[in-house]
Structure formats: structure tokens, C-alpha cells
Amino acid sequence: MQVVQPIRDTEKIEEIQQILKNQSERDWLLFTIGINSGLHLSDLLTLRVKDLKDKSKVTIKEEKTGKEKTFLINVQLKDWINEYVAYMDENNYLFPSQRTGKPIKRIRVYRILNEAAKQAGLNDIGTHTLRKTFGYHYYQKTRNISVLRELFNHSAPSVTLRYIGVNAGKS
After folding, report:
1. How many whole angstroms separate alpha carbon 54 and alpha carbon 48?
2. Range of the domain at 30
3. Is 1 part of a structural domain of the chain?
4. DSSP secondary-structure letter at 128?
5. Beta bridge partner(s), residue 61
6. Is-contact 110 125, C-beta < 8 A?
7. Does the N terminus or the C terminus of the chain have fewer Cβ atoms within 10 A?
8. Are 168 and 161 in contact (CB under 8 A)?
């Protein structure tokens, strides 16, 4: 299994966002919500318009753990989401396949992220990169590994630090 990394450089994050925005609003928003929420990809893909429209706080039940997870949506992200969903039905999936209307598949997300990362000169990127990027930047801002460990449902802070690509004692 390939070990993927968080995107540590904020300029690279912006570059990938621009690449994605140029090709697809859906792909750009998926990436942007992913790096701002820390959700598992499986939970991101099952989001519907009604789950996020006009909300600043979202609670979902995690598919993987069955636990409830709450995340905040900042004002800018809320505006982007509302603009994106303006003409969508509230029961529509947020990230639908153009062919089926059902959520895009994990492998499709992997290909989208990898292609954008390649264009930005990055490798070691995968579907967990979104969650790891969220964790890495949250930790850099707050240094609060306890909250992050709980958010990610990890057994120990050392597991969380390893997951977000931070070596203990270094950043």
C-alpha cells in the first residue's frame, strides 16, 4: 500500500485548488471541503446538498466508526458551498457522477487528486491526503494533538502524529 502524505505547503494547496477549479467546480469543492473538514472520503462522498446547504456546523454519522462527527464550516466555505448547490435539489449528492447522479467513486477521486498533484509537481498523493492535510495544518496552527487524536479516533497521539506526517519533536 502506498503511503500518502499531507500537502504541507499552502502555496501547493492553492495551486491544486486552482488546477481543480479550472477543470471542475465539483472536484475543487470536494478537495476544499476535504482539507477543511478532516472527514473520511467515504463520508465526504455520501454528503447530500441538504447536509451542508446554509450550515456553519455539520454533524454526520461516520460510516467507518458509526460515531457522530461534527465539523465547522467557515463563512467563506459556506458561501462557496451555497453558490455550488444553488440550483441543485436538496436530496442530490454533493459530488455526483455526471453519468449516474450517484456519488463519484473512490478510484475516480484518487485519479482526480493524482492528476492535479502531478500538474502541481507533487507525488505521494492519495485519497487520505485530504484528511492528512487537514490534520497537518490543524496541528501546525494549534499544536493540540489531543483534539486531533480524538477527531481522528486514533488510539494514541503518536499514531496521529505519524498519520499527519509529523515526527515527534519536529514539524
Report:
1. 13
2. 10-164
3. no
4. T
5. 68
6. no
7. N
8. yes
Provide the residue type at 56 as one letter: S
Digit-by-digit pLDDT tens for the chain (171 residues) are: 578 999 999 999 999 999 999 999 999 999 999 999 999 999 999 999 999 999 999 999 999 888 888 899 999 999 999 999 999 999 999 999 999 999 999 999 999 999 999 999 999 999 999 999 999 999 999 999 999 999 998 999 999 999 999 986 554
Structural domains counted in the chain: 1
Whether residue 5 is contained in a domain is answered as no
Give a yes or no: residue 91 inside a domain. Answer: yes
pTM over 0.90: yes
How far is residue 157's CA from residue 18's CA, in Å, rounded to a whole number? 33
Which residues neighbour 45 within 8 Å (Cβ) at sequence distance 6 or greater?
93, 95, 103, 104, 106, 109
**Measured distance CA(162)–CA(109) in Å, rounded:** 24
Q: CATH no. for residue 99?
A: 1.10.443.10
- CB-count exposure of residue 123 (10 Å: 0-12, 13-18, 19+): exposed
Kindly provide the b/e burial profile for residues 76-113, where b requires at least 16 CB atoms within 10 angstroms of the residue's own CB: ebbebbeebbeeeeeeebbbbeeeeeebbeeeebbebb
